[in-house]
Amino acid sequence: MTLQELRYIVALADKGHFVRAADACHVGQPTLSTQLKKLEDYLGVTLFERNKHQMRPTPIGEQIIERARRALDVVDEIRELARRDHDPFNGPLRVGVIPTLGPYLIPHLLPAIRAELPQMRLFLREDLTVNLLERLRQGELDVLLLALPVRGDDLDVLELFSEPFVVALPRDHALAARRQLTEADLCGENVLLLEEGHCMREQALSICGATPSDQREELKATSIETLRQMVAAGVGCTLLPELAAAPGVGSISNGMVTIRRFAAPEPVRKIGLAWRHRFPREATLHKLAELILANVAPLGATAAGSSARRLRPQPSAAAAD
After folding, report:
1. What span, in angstroms and rounded, lies between the C-alpha atoms of 43 and 31?
2. Residue 84 has what pLDDT?
3. pTM
4. Domain count, the chain
5. What's the CATH number where 192 sits?
6. Rounded distance, CA 134 to CA 131, Å?
7. Fewer CB in a 10 Å sphere around the end CB: N or C, the chain?
8. What are phi and psi of 74, to 5 degrees?
9. What share of the chain in percent tops pLDDT 90?
10. Is the pLDDT assigned to residue 319 strictly greater than 50?
11. b/e map 1-14, b = 16+ CB within 10 Å
12. 10 Å Cβ neighbour count for 33?
């Protein structure tokens, strides 16, 4: 059994026809037929039901073809791994980012990545932390940009910067008359929250009170932009990460929302990178960290010391968004 034979049966399954599969594999139809018969004889099973117009995998053929695809994917990974070892900054990098950070950081970051790493192709996926972590562990993503802490001794974590929370208020709210607020000022206020699954929801609850009100439970948003619109409509106030509250960011630009900072010490969330332990392109990830730090500094975020800080892997598997 050879890798080429596995490529042939995958092509036959995809094309459903000998001629089209042979064309896709750049071989003649007799070669493809011969190699399929050879593989079936070797395995002792029939892989395809044949008729004049179409080929369809048999039940055992479907199972074998599924595993053939996985085997070929691993072969491709081996080739890619060897290629990246020569130039870790060349090739694709699959980055997962949480939705409360991605829209406000990535637009500032992309021009720098294109300028500094023109050979790197960046693929972005935005999702909740728990989903991103699952994809990271399954090998579907290479690195995550998310809120810390992230736990699991199978991961390496690099703390990048601290991002303060600010308060978004309707412009005629009584608290809008103050220059700075305290966490106590939010007690009793209708603080709007993101729906379950967003770690920013838990962070907001820890700041403004750990017990959600009935009204909060009725008014749960799916995004920061929805929260911003609800504040503009006078429904309540909310907490925003500082990057999401920068001037000109978001869909409210007519003065309907007032932003106020907390008095020191401001509540913050820590942002960092997480990747699988022993990921072979750590040099790429550290370069990405440098670019992130260079581009968040003008936006007001506070770096973790003079540079990114490597964290010791934490035991157990828990997530924050």
Report:
1. 18
2. 64
3. 0.67
4. 2
5. 3.40.190.290
6. 5
7. N
8. -65, -40
9. 50
10. no
11. eeeebbbbbbbbbe
12. 15
What average pLDDT does this structure show over 166-184?
A: 92
CA distances from 246 to 87, 90, 125, 168 (A): 37, 33, 23, 11
Torsion of CA 201, 205, 207, 213, to 10 degrees: 130
Distance CA 175, CA 290 (A): 38
Alpha-carbon gap, residue 6 to 119, rounded angstroms? 31
Half-sphere exposure of 287 (CA within 13 A, CB side): 16
* pLDDT of 312 higher than 50: no
What gap in Å lies between CA 71 and CA 282, rounded to an integer? 25
Q: Where in the sequence is the domain holding 41, given as residue range(s)?
A: 3-86
The answer to whether residues 168 and 257 touch, using CB atoms and an 8 Å cutoff, is: yes
What DSSP designation does 130 have? H
What DSSP state is assigned to residue 20? H
**Bridge partners, residue 220, by sequence:** 193
32 and 130 housed in the same domain: no
12-48 pLDDT tens trace: 999 888 888 999 899 999 999 999 999 999 999 999 9
| String of DSSP letters for 163-193 | EEEEEEEETT-GGGGSSEE-GGGGTTS-EEE
What is the pLDDT, as a whole number, of residue 315? Answer: 46
